[in-house]
Amino acid sequence: MGKRGWASRLRLGLMWLVLTALAGGCADAFSEPQAITGAGQTGDDRTRLTLWGGVPPEAGPEAVVAAWNAAHPDIVLEYVRYVNDDDGNLKLDTALMAGQQVDLYFNYSRSQLERRIEAGVALDLGGFDDYDPGEKMGADAEAWKIDGCYYGLPTKQNYYFVALNKEALEAAGLPIPVSWTWDDMRTYASKLSESYAYGWLQHLEPFDDPVDALLSHEGYTGTDGQSQLDHPLVAHWLETLKAMMTEDGSTPEYGVQLTSKMPVEQMFLSGEAAMLNIGEWLFRSANQAAGDGQSFTIAFAPVPRLTEHEADYIPRGGLGDVLSIHPGSPNIDAAWAFAKWYADGGMVPMAQGGRLPASQDADLEAAMDYFLGGHRDRYDMPSLEHVFYGSPQRTFVRSLSQPVLDLRTEEYEKYFLGVQTLEQTLANMKQRHTAYLQSGSLPDE
What we know:
42% of the residues lie in helices and 12% in strands. It is α+β, with helices and mostly antiparallel strands. The radius of gyration is 22 Å and the shape is globular. Residues 1-25 and 27-41 have low confidence and may be disordered.
């Protein structure tokens, strides 16, 4: 089993040790919250709020804390950073359940939020009637309703894209893609790898987004109730990547990237690779690199699709950074006041770390200034605007449960590492996913 699979099972095991029976319905689900020790008042009788998040303090949270504390001297906010990986999320989950002081925290995926709802550590916001996420953030907020309820405020716009070395494309005679396929991408990567160590790099977080973009349209299950993880275009995704790794040499072999913890952002920004599949967090590093004398212009393209026709896929996007309140906080009213303030504009300094606010009440112009870090000349603005504002209206927020994400990763890792055939990989993904759908749990291996 892969590292993420073991971490997920350990996390779930810890959660279920403290899981209490949840009453039916939204507003009553946490009528008897678990108390958290250590929360409450400061020594000078001011209320203390502790916020946990995955963003480095210097990339926005320090400015947010300073602004809140200056405007609300009676409520002192403190920020605790956890790394948004398996170990970091386990640290947060443990703190939530063990009664450490956590008043508010960010969820960076739907599966994380779902686990925390099941563990009783995310407050149903249905008890508040003075804020409507749908009105503030638009229809995309609906993707974060779980069983008809909001257990956190989605606060930022999500953007996923391919960052491109514009000068590298020009030298190779390749236009900036406006709409392209997975096969087009392979052609680009092969051509660009003639002059660069790699033509194509991928951050592991959005690694399998092309599959979800396909199946968000086609359906993760067929009309027979069986998994569609063995879809022919999933096979094409796997085959193409494997060929790029082992035949073309245009992208790193999966095992090398995984074991070396390959710093793909730095490799792209230093000019070792010509294209990088990533999300908006790239801007944090790119702005720093631009300040240090980055020598090329960054252009942008949508993530290449597996389907021939653009109408047959749904790209990843929507909203993210869901801010939840621990139901055991003794300062829920203060936490709610902060959550609304943050979503409606308090988060603007977070844009320097690649986070644009989702609320219509936030100052988007000011946020964009933070976002680009004073380095507009380092970015190809027409392609950025196309990816951010000219992309399809339909997007998906990854909603697969963590066990399914884990089994999928475990199986394709075996294929990329050469210990399992393509046919066996597809069959295993289908069989294990179907078993999960039918029983709600994974079969023993």
